[in-house]
User: Fold these one by one.
Assistant:
Number 1:
Amino acid sequence: MLITFLRHATAEVGGLSLPDSDRALIDKGEKQVKRIAAFCLANGLIPGSIYCSPLLRAQQTARILNQSLPGSPAPQTVSWLAIETATPTILIELSKLAQRGISDAWLVGHEPDFSITISRLLGTTPDNIVIKKASLTRLDANFSDQASAKLLWSIPCALMHQGQT
């Protein structure tokens, strides 16, 4: 199963007056997602399915990706991508997707959850994984025995240039 992790794009800074769940993308974040979509289009990266955190910034990231990337499916909001979901829960849900025959899942979510999940699948520690905002990280995961994966690539938005492969 191919799993592509898309960390949400740059959002408002949280604080006492703004609950974390209400943080929206800023202009820079919207531009980042459009850059990701253009990069994906130029490189033939069309999601098979998109699963998204219920938090606003992730919802906006997924929606802009879907609107800017022709052929991409509508995002599906799932509670198991909310912030601070336990890694075993995420892995169980990914295993369920694999059992249902989902072969290409894109996840739109948050740190540190993505680093922890990726490190668990790769058999390393979270300290060895850095998932930047608006980055794509693709794994080839196997859920048949014990959850494991191989890192295929990880690309931060800053290195995504239109028209280049």
Number 2:
Amino acid sequence: MILSEYMIPGMLIRDRLVTVPLDWSNPGDGRTIKIFAREVVDPTRRDADLPKLAYIQGGPGGKGPRPSPGGPVWLAQALKTHRVILVDQRGTGRSARVESATLSAFADAGQAADYLWLFRADSIVHDYEYLRERVFGGGRWEILGQSYGGFIALSYLSMAPQGLAACYITGGLAGLDADADEVYRRTYPRVAAKNDRYYRRYPLDGSRIARVADIIATQDIRLPDGDRLSVRRLQTLGNDFGLARGFENIHWLMEEAFSDEKETRLSDHFLASVMALTSYDSNPLYAVLQEIIYGHGDHAGRWSAQRIRASFPEFSPERRPLLFTGEMMYPWMFEEIRSLRPFREVANLLAERGGYPPLYDPPRLAANEVPVAAAIYHDDMFVDAGLSLDTAARVGNLQAWVTSEYQHDGLRQSASVLGRLLEDVRERGGPVR
């Protein structure tokens, strides 16, 4: 069902809302959710028989990109040759959005945890397949997975390769056997290296950030929403270090940290910015499911990032220069951050949960015939390049492009990233038709 059809410069857009089973392992139980999908096409080719490219966004908990004239840059590139499908993954955007009010529908945290268990990659693949078969004509389509979207793309290749004509992955070749502990053992050293590069680029920031941290540690500093700001929350700003403009984002923020010449009072601008950058009102699933996406078998995550952090004392909030952390979620966040407090009990239950259904099928991936082109960012802070190279060697018909030119968000920075991957597949005979 088309909800609306409209034009923005350079794009014809059709919005759809589709009903799918909540639990794909038991679709007959009557529980359903709505999945939102947006079709985008060059208006001059609105009726052309174009190949379809379904985008799988990163996250977890990230909604599909909202198009605007000329952007995102990869979308402008894709529209030259494809009809593009932008999906809000379940739990995000307009697809059964999960937020604090969602929990009120459940009798207890256990029921809520059971509900969120159904928002992992296997369910998302089933949603995409339903859209492909029932809404978009049933033919094979191409997929583009960015970051966590690449993890989902590997699940797609494992579960339903018959639906795929080609697969493009940017910064998202997951380790097929790596659990959360291995991921974070590899992640902390990469984040430490990013901190070192940051302080070498901006050597005066070491003393300034130390002053900021000392004030936060010794005073009751409140953010605009009432949360008390802790040093460990300040450290989570380092998530930006994995992005192309991340160093500059943090540097310019620290430049305006103080509102007085003696640098004793933190500015309103600084506090409002920290609140916005470290809150999760728009994507609580990013925090709740962060470690769940690495679940294997009966192994429970048990707050892996927190446990592994003990082996890296240089990340202590008391150390100076202060090291920022990255894409790690900690149990204290569900106590200190207003937007995450309602999820505290649910997150703790999920952290102790095992019995994960397999997300990848290594033998099937080894025998894969769908052409896959993957960009591996050598300096990727979020996805370990070593694990990605190991996976690339284990997936049939996959061509890897290893580059140090881009950070994790290379797809959003340059149209040439998608262009290179499309060309890689074309040179090998093109997508399966």
Number 3:
Amino acid sequence: MFLLVVTLYFVLACFISWMVLFPSGREFVVSALAGANARLQQKLGRLADRRRAELGALGRTGKASVGGLRDFFAEHYLLCLGGLALLTMPPLLALLLARPSLNGFDSSTREVNTQVAGLLAGEQLVPPPALPPLVFTTAEVQLERPMLVSASRDWALLDSVYAQRLLMVFRIMKEKYGYDMALLEGYRSPERQNTLAAMGSSVTNAAAFQSWHQYGLAADCAFLRDGKLVISERDPWAMRGYQLYGEVAESMGLTWGGRWKMMDFGHTELRRTGVMK
């Protein structure tokens, strides 16, 4: 391989020296290149003529084909129209029988919950009238919920989103199940939270700012029957109401205390990320 390279290099060096040193060498190379160029131009010209001839024949064939189709349609136009009708009839019938709606979807036949739909549409529910203070001072109420008299039942102190969801729960409980609901306590100050926590775990395990009450995102509720508060779950009617209350509250995206280890049937809250540390 090495010898071949050396030999080719020697031949190339001799050829270049011959061209440089002898005019006859340069003339030979120039004439050879000119002859090669002429032969190349002739071949390219013949190739171009052949392509033009082929394109002309193709164009004449295409015109002849179009003319033949036109003549065929003019002679058998009834047959062509009948075939076109047969091809288009099935999809047209399918389109007409499907009766799609304007937006491309069939109308839903599912029953719509008008109450939830109203809430999602932005309906603003109004809190119920405040109950007389004497309702919260009976012996039964004091036994079930100590210090309830001083609790806040101001709906304006609750988070607006949570308040609207809770009011919708109240409406559903009344209209669907016949239960009148009452707000026992909504917003709770940190001082009151610590006071209740000091009363023991039977009241609450949460200290100040460990409860969603301090953020207006929790509330304790019970039932009204014959103008009196019914809080105890030992009452079968109230216990059934708490179960329904939990289902409705959870359907509205709220957390229900009835599922906790230390069950709090009347408690609901709306947990939001980034609110409680």
